[in-house]
Amino acid sequence: MNPCERAEFRKKLESDLKTAGDEVIRLFAQRRVFEGLAKVFQESPAVNVEWTQLHTFLFAGYVAQACLRLRRLMDHDRRNDPVSLASIVWRVCKHPDILTRAEYVSRFTSGLKVRGARCQVPQVAGLALQAVSEHMECEANELFDRFTGPGQPCLDPARLCKACLPARWNCAKVLAYVDKRLAHYDRKRPEDPTWGELDEAIDAAGDLYCDLSVLIVGSAPKRDELAGTWQGAAWEPLLEVPWVTRVE
Q: Which DSSP string corresponds to 95-134?
């Protein structure tokens, strides 16, 4: 690739990663709300008497939405080039030289050097800045080593694929369920994923996003931060008042 093509390729990677990351965040936030609702259903004597259509609507609706989000995140169709985590992995593996160690390390240290150059700092502060820069450079090299051999200049596609295997394994059953039960209705019904398997698939997709974020942009949230903090009105108080009032 020439410099312009490299810049455009990276720009698209980062844009697709952000789009996929937003989908991951929605998935984790959705699970947190569902878990809260499920807890209310389990602990409410009036609601937990027998299974109703409301239970089916809530539980089946959440499963369908979560599974379809996972399908979008793990979809990889080379003909249509979807925006997904799996597609990002495939493109990076196809062009491993797009992510070099030198560029990756410089992303961690260039900001420190610029700030140091702009400040009139005494010698001791300058030495401290140098120490911080060396620490950041060491940390960047260790992070890059996760996806390539120690000291290797470019990404190793085999290592990245290996890092993605847990996500593929944990999502396989969910993806089969989507393809053969939600998107289509095969006569040979696949085995439904359990709640635990769905949670593992969601966590695996979150871990894959975090790994790709560390690799492509140099930083990532922790898994327990992916659900984020809801900025709007809380939904829990809505369940503390009657939804229907009858006039006598």
A: SGGGSBHHHHHHHHHHHHHHHHHHS---HHHHHHHHHHHH
Q: Between vectors from CA 141 to CA 137 and to CA 144, what angle results, nearest 5°? A: 140
Stated pTM of the model:
0.84
Distance of alpha carbon 173 from the chain centroid: 19
Q: Which 3 state secondary structure label does DSSP give 154?
A: strand
* Amino acid occupying residue 232: G
Distance CA 125, CA 117 (A): 12
* CA dist list (Å): 224 to 3, 23, 49, 172, 216: 37, 15, 33, 23, 21
Reported as a single tens digit per residue, the pLDDT across 171-180 is 999 988 898 8
Rounded to the nearest 10 degrees, what angle do helices 123-145 and 101-118 cross at?
Answer: 160
